[in-house]
Every structure is written in structure tokens, then in C-alpha cells.
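As described in the Methods, two query proteins were run sequentially through the folding procedure within a single session, without resetting any intermediate state between them. The first query and its resulting C-alpha cells are shown here.
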Amino acid sequence: MSVSEGMRARGVRVELGGRVILEGVDLDAVPGAVTAIVGPNGSGKTTLLRALAGLVPSSGDIRIGGVDLHSLSPPERARHLAYLPQASKLEAMLSVSEVVALGRYAARPRSFSRRRDDDEAVARALGRVGVAELAEHPYPWLSGGQKRLVLLARALATGAPMLLLDEPTASLDVKNALELFALLASLARDGYTLVVVLHDLDDVQRHTAHALLLDAGRARAAGSPRADVFVEAAEHTYGVTLVPSQRLGFRLPAGGRSSEPGHGNGGEPEP
């Protein structure tokens, strides 16, 4: 396993309960960049992310580093990718450290003994998302935003080179959201492949290198979210006119996670 893996999906189709949710969707996600999935409510964003993670039945061709996703067993899949859901039903009275350690067992489901390298991976993951001080806190007592960060740490602790994140900034205040985007850019620079469902088009333009626009289960545009053709497709899809610089702007103070948080290049390698 290496961090040089990317994802290529062609003709993804998902039918649930006799209803077609996705039809003929293509997506490319490359190492070293943040790729966004965006679209109106009900467009199929979460379903596509779950299909890419192998969590819902799908047809079409999905490949990770050239390997057919459907040929992988769940433990093998867990070694390739980690999935952060939009919401978690986890309410067990576990400590934050114990929750993050669950990510270590995904790729070896028949072994539940916690080893020294597991402890080291948990500590690194908690430190990277900035919640190391919560390690011994009971997970159910955390705020919604804190829980999101802990679940992201759990995904990082798996060691998988690909992260699929469903609205990772949900429940985060503006500072924590900016720190999370700076973290994603840092992970991209480290060679991770990141696929992120987002709602806010401004966040997509500011913080991602590539984007896929969905509408009613079909792809309407793909490429740079700042390109004119993508902006025009987004305006048509949402039925709005995008007006640049018409919202409050924020950035982290000097010394934050990134040299210029809030104005990154979406994790694209520097020229």
C-alpha cells in the first residue's frame, strides 16, 4: 500500500428500492489533491461517496490504484480507504482514544488486541486533528464538532492512503472549519487522495482542486471549480447567479496550520 494510489470511477450506477439514484457517473481523484463532490440536496452526493467506499451496491467500474473495488474483501478495502460518514450513531461509553483505536481493527477484523503501534497511530491521529487533549474524555460527552474531529482521527488512524469524507465541516465553527480545510490541504501535500462531499460552493472554490457537480443523480460538470464552464454549470444547476466576494471572509492567524489558511490551492502540488 502506498500513498500514490488514486481513484477512477466510470459509469457508476446505483439503484436502491427500485429507484435509480445515480446513473452513468464518472469521477477521477488523484493523490495530492482534494476532490469535491457537490450538488443540490438530493442530487446523490452521499450515495456516490458510499458507492465509492463499497458500502452500497453499485454497477460500473470503480478502481483504486488500478484494482477493481468490487474484487476486494472488506478488510482489503479498509487497507485502501477510510470513510467518514455524515453522521455517526456511535454512542458507546468509550474514551476518545478507544474510538480512534477502532480504526486500527478495520483491516484485521479478527484481531482486537491493541498493540504498541496502534497506540502510536492513535496518538499521531489525535495530534494531527488537534484533539489530543481529549484522549481520555468519554466520546458521547463531546460536542457535535468535537465528535467530527475524533471520527476524522479514527479515519487517519487506519493508515489508509485514501479518505472519503461526507461533509466533514458539518457542526464545526468557522475557526475549526478553516483548520480542517488546512489539515486536508496538508494531507494532500503528504500524498493522500481525498474525496470530500461539500455543500458550500465558496468552500469548494477556495479549498479544492477538482470538483464533480451532480444533479438528480447525473454528472453535470467536472474539473476545476473555478473554471468558467464549471461555474456556468453550477449556476444552471442551482438556479442562481454566483457573485464573487459577496460573503464574509476569514482566515487563521499567522502560525496556524497553513501559511494562508482559507486561500489554499486545494492540495495541488506546488509548481
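Immediately afterward, the second query was submitted; its sequence and C-alpha cells are:
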Amino acid sequence: MQATDPVTVLDLLREIQRAHDASLGFRYSCRVAMCGTCAVRVDGKSALACSTVISPDRDNVEIAPLAGLPVVRDLIVDTHPFWDQWARITPWFVPAEDEPARIAPGSREAELVDGALGCISCGACYSTCEIVQRGGDYIGPAALNRALALIADPRDGAAQQRLRVVGGAGGVDRCHYVGACTSACPVGVDPAGSIVELRRMRLRGHA
């Protein structure tokens, strides 16, 4: 690297592994903030290692594994709890049995679906959520955001099923609406807003 090149947390980790400790364990893949694999905590905040730049005047930086997930080794966490909650909301598209509906450009449905689809499943919001860190059966912000993307889509046929899940144990009523999940998202998704919208849908009996 040239002296003027920005140094990311991932650059630092790779250099430590190359020059100082070959046993250091961490994950990464795309290196362009698309896959979410490299999520860690930097100075206590969940972030992507590949896109978090370290200021040249920094002498120290604290890098830790994501919170709310079992640590396997060093910065590597076991993501099974995250994906177990993700699976609860039937995270795949279920075609409606009736005549396929359309999403009108500029409609409220289009706005909700488009806003929620950017999630890269990195776990940053999950790691930041205090309810998740306390344990229990909370579905978590990432999975609830995914649920909204599908429930709001009139072409999907499993909205009522998902509404029962998100309105049941571990669902939207567990959220304290602090908004930390949204502030942690490295790609600008608003899971806190998605949770608020899901709660409105449940109270209205939206299908």
C-alpha cells in the first residue's frame, strides 16, 4: 500500500495475520461491503471491517467479535443463532395462489419492499441490539426487516403466516424502539423503521 492509501480494519487484520500472528482468526470475502462476512465490533460499534477506515492519527483501535453470538475463535463467531431466528419468518418468497398482483412504482408497497431489500445479513444490527444480547427468543432486527420486505409484497402468499410469527413470542413487541440497529447498519437499511411498520400492520390486521 502507498502511504496515502486509506487503511481499513480488514487491512490491519490481514497485516497482523501476515506479519505478526498467522493464527489470528477472522472472516472476510468480497472486500467491497457486499457480503457482510467481515462484520466485527470496532471500538465497541458493530461495523464491516472492509469498509471501516482507521484514521491515520490513531495509535490504538479495539477490534472484537460481534456481540450476541457465541465466539468460536478470535473474531470468528457462530452465526447459527442469527440464522435460526432468520428461518422463523420463512425468509423466502412464497408465490401467491391467486392471480399475481403487481407493485405499482412509487406506491407504499414499493417503498417498503425496496427499503428493506438492501440487507446483506451481516449481523451488525443483531450484534448491536440489547434485547438480543440478553438472550431469549427475540427474532431480532435483521429477520424482522426481512419479514417486512415479504409481508409488504402483494405478490407473496405467506403474509398472514409471517404476521403471526412476528406478532407472537419473540416478535415485534420485544423491541424497545431504541434504534441502535438502524444506526449500526453499514448499508443504510432501517430495521427499526421496519419493526415499527410491522407493528402497525399487525395491529391493523394487514395481510
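Residues 60 and 74 are 18 Å apart (CA to CA). We note this only descriptively and draw no conclusion about the first query from it.
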